[in-house]
């Protein structure tokens, strides 16, 4: 008989207790699931005198990326967690895992609406600076996602965009979320921007620093988390993700515009950002009803579907207006 999510969480907690004693010689006082994120099972683990993060997965190909990327970012002056302990053998528990130091603060997503314009602009300067730093990290000639030894790549950026669109269509058709309008928008993005995509020479960027993984403490940037992946391709795609996260909100516009101002993007580049915002928002909408980990279910959330499609229509109208 298949275990319920509650039973699975209890089972994971038991495993965390085992490895906590193994590495820290004491039982945790509390173990709390972090509900943001899709790839790994993440928990906040409190001991009597410290608090750490543990990440677990039955696959280690993604998680091992942090092994490689954390030192690269640290040596460039970016505040990121330390790996305190790690094991990918599955000898002690049936998961690969990492214990990491916990950065101060909370993810930007749940608190951005409470930040002042000045705070948002200062955080945006930090993120813009990180984007500039990431661009100096040597890139190969391929495009896609790079972890450690594992990568998901294509030979060109246009092929990578086609792959992203294909995945969105496959997921959306499977769950029924994809409709004729979204399908037409994806084809339009692919066709109308093919010449632009073909001109892209890959640069390194952090693709997942939009509504999560950017830690804020007391209204100030405190560091980045979840560093499994470096992306290679068009760095404007990462800013499109930011715009897609909070479209048509005051705080979203202040923050995204401040990032673009820090990077001195021109009008044409800002139009590209809107195109990537539309692409990502459609892609995210097609994740609805796909189970990635215990934070997600295999059931389509119809309220989310309705909201997603309203936002997609808004972004599409902006995209068409800018052309």
Structural commentary:
By secondary structure, the protein is an alpha+beta fold. It has two domains: 5-101, Phosphorylase Kinase, domain 1 (2-Layer Sandwich); 106-322, Alpha-Beta Complex (Aminoglycoside 3'-phosphotransferase, Chain: A, domain 2). It has eleven helices and twelve strands. The strands form three sheets. It has a five-stranded antiparallel beta sheet with strand order 1-2-3-5-4, with helices on one face. Strands 8-7-12-9 form a four-stranded antiparallel beta sheet. β4 (83-87) and β5 form a beta hairpin. α5 runs antiparallel to α6 (180-192). The model is unreliable at 1-9 (pLDDT under 50). Residues 31-249 form the Aminoglycoside phosphotransferase domain.
List keywords for this structure.
323 residues; alpha+beta; Phosphorylase Kinase, domain 1; Aminoglycoside 3'-phosphotransferase, Chain: A, domain 2; 2 domains; 5-stranded antiparallel β-sheet; 4-stranded antiparallel β-sheet; 11 helices; 48% helix; globular; Aminoglycoside_PTrfase; Aminoglycoside phosphotransferase domain-containing protein; Kinase-like_dom_sf
- The name of the CATH superfamily of the largest domain reads Aminoglycoside phosphotransferase (APH), C-terminal lobe
In total, how many beta strands? Answer: 12
The parts where pLDDT drops under 50 for at least 5 residues are: 1-9
How many helical stretches?
11
Largest sheet: 5 strands, antiparallel
Based on Cα principal axes, name the global outline.
globular
User: Tell me, what is the CATH class of the largest domain?
Assistant: Alpha Beta
CATH topology of the largest domain: Aminoglycoside 3'-phosphotransferase, Chain: A, domain 2
Structural class: alpha+beta
Strand content: 15-25%
CATH architecture of the largest domain: Alpha-Beta Complex
Range of helix content: 40-55%
Strand/helix succession: HEEEHEEEHHEEHHHEEEEHHHH
Mean pLDDT: 92
Q: How much is the radius of gyration in Å?
A: 20 Å
């Amino acid at each position: 008989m298949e275990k319920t999510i509650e039973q699975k969480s209890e089972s994971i907690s038991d495993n965390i207790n085992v490895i906590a004693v193994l590495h820290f010689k004491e039982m945790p006082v509390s173990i709390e699931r972090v509900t943001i994120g899709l790839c790994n099972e993440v928990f906040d683990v409190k001991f009597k005198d410290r608090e750490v993060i543990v990440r677990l997965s039955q696959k280690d190909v993604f998680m091992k990326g942090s092994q490689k990327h954390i030192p690269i970012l640290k040596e460039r002056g970016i505040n990121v967690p330390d790996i305190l302990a790690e094991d990918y053998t599955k000898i002690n528990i049936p998961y690969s895992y990492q214990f990491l130091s916990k950065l101060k603060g909370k993810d930007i997503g749940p608190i951005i609406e409470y930040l002042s314009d000045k705070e948002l602009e200062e955080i945006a300067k930090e993120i813009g600076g990180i984007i500039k730093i990431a661009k100096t990290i040597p890139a190969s000639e391929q495009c896609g996602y790079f972890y450690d030894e594992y990568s998901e790549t294509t030979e060109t950026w246009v092929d990578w965009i086609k792959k992203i669109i294909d995945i969105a269509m496959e997921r959306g058709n499977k769950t029924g979320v994809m409709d004729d309008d979204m399908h037409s928008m994806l084809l339009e993005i692919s066709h109308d921007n093919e010449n632009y995509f073909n001109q892209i020479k890959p640069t390194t960027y952090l693709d997942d620093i939009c509504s999560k993984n950017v830690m804020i403490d007391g209204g100030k940037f405190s560091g980045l988390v979840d560093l499994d992946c470096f992306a290679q391709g068009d760095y404007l795609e990462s800013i499109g993700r930011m715009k897609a996260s909070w479209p048509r909100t005051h705080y979203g516009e202040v923050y995204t515009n401040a990032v673009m101002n820090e990077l001195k993007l021109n009008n044409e580049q800002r139009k590209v950002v809107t195109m990537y915002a539309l692409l990502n928002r459609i892609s995210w909408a097609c994740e609805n009803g796909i189970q990635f980990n215990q934070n997600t279910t295999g059931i389509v959330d119809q309220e989310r579907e309705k909201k997603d499609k309203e936002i997609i229509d808004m972004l599409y109208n902006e995209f068409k207006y800018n052309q």
